[in-house]
Amino acid sequence: MLSDDANKRLTQVGPGTPMGQLLRRYWHPLAASVQLQVEPVLEVRMLGEDLVLYRAEDGYLGLVGSHCAHRLTSLAYGIPEPGGLRCAYHGWKFDCTGQCVDQPAEPADSTFKERVRITAYPVHELGGLLWAYLGPPPAPLLPRYDLLVRDDLEREIGFAEIPCNWLQIMENSMDPVHAEHLHGNHANYMLARQGRAPMRVRRHVRTAFDVFDYGVVKRRLLEGQTEEVDDWRMGHPVLFPAALAVGTDAQAQFQFRVPIDDERTMHWWYLTRHKVPGAPPQGAIPLDEFVYRHPNGRFMVDTAMGQDIMAWITAGPLMDRATEKLATSDEGIILYRRLMEEQLTKLNRGEDPLGVVRDPARNEPCIEIPRERVFEYQGQGFLPVSNPDFPFAVRRRIYPAVA
Question: Does residue 12 belong to any structural domain of this protein?
Fold first, then answer.
């Protein structure tokens, strides 16, 4: 359990909060690139801040505060132009640094615009995602994680807005044992209700967690396995502070969990597979919304992702950790909370926290993330995705638009 103060310290993400300060030392995905093809100006919210993301026709990218400094009109209806975003109300234009660079109704010799500035943050494009850094300068390097830059992969991106605090999602990733029950025994309960054959479920014999340069590698050993199995020998990592790497080289994914505010999280699934030899370069990366409720409002616990999302959300918008009862199998969760406290201490000493990249030599050509060659999930392969009777997720295609 955590005290109320400790729970707030690790969950609140707004400006000036301890965890908000820590999370602002990292780059986070804010949108998929194709979203700005559909609408070149987007209202976005991240880490408790309302912002506007835009791209001009010449490719100029910006991320600025949500309202014009003049009469506080929403910049979500602004005009993206080379060199900045122009407010729809009176035409004030702001560049990607937030500096006002044009005030059409002011005298030609006026210097007033030079004294007007709005909030702005750097934004970069990588791997079909748009990434933002909301922290103090100088910004660290945007990590070139392998799946984002490799040229031998085809990619799909999925997303869902999850109405709960980000830490509930991350703690699920530090809890290997839940897979045995939620994705094994409970999945079989759902399959039985549908008259379908059960999956093989094996008990966790041992779990282990090791801190490395970019986060925590988690390992599991299931009954009947030896320590030579990849899931124990290599494991798969949680990337600090808020991402999961899972799957094999042939079918790998990242899951990025980006706090919208204290009670909402934008979840991104970055799915990859090897290209077919000789296949042409992939065009725009498809974008799907992951659907996790049935039309009647019930969670889709007949999908693996829906099961996880049910567990995240039903703990409440912001879980009361003062009432939880942690057990010995929760060692990963305890380690993760301790690791966050350690990074807060480093931040207070003026040091970079875990996983921040500033050395270009570490970032080029890419950052290789260790992952298994063979991931044996309850005898079914990578998650239940290979079992057509129990799908990984239900998707709704956003881009390209479906007629």
Answer: no
pLDDT digits 0-9 by tens, 347-356:
999 999 999 9
Radius of gyration (C-alpha) of the chain in whole angstroms? 22
Residue 77 and residue 88 in contact, taking contact as beta carbons nearer than 8 Å: yes
CB 62 within 8 A of CB 106: no
Q: Among residues of the chain, what percentage have pLDDT more than 90?
A: 80
Its pTM stands at 0.93
Cβ neighbors of 52 (< 8 A, separation 6 or more) are 41, 42, 43, 44, 63, 64, 65, 66, 74, 75, 76, 78, 85
Number of domains in the chain: 2
Q: How far apart are CA 255 and CA 271, in angstroms?
A: 9
DSSP string, 49-70: EEEEEEE-TT--EEEEESB-TT
Is the residue at 87 inside a domain? yes
Q: How confident is the model at residue 198 (pLDDT cuts 50, 70, 90)?
A: confident
Q: How many CA atoms lie within 13 A of 255 on its CB side?
A: 19
Count the neighbouring beta carbons within 10 Å of the beta carbon of residue 58. Answer: 9
End residue of a domain, out of 106, 133, 160: 133
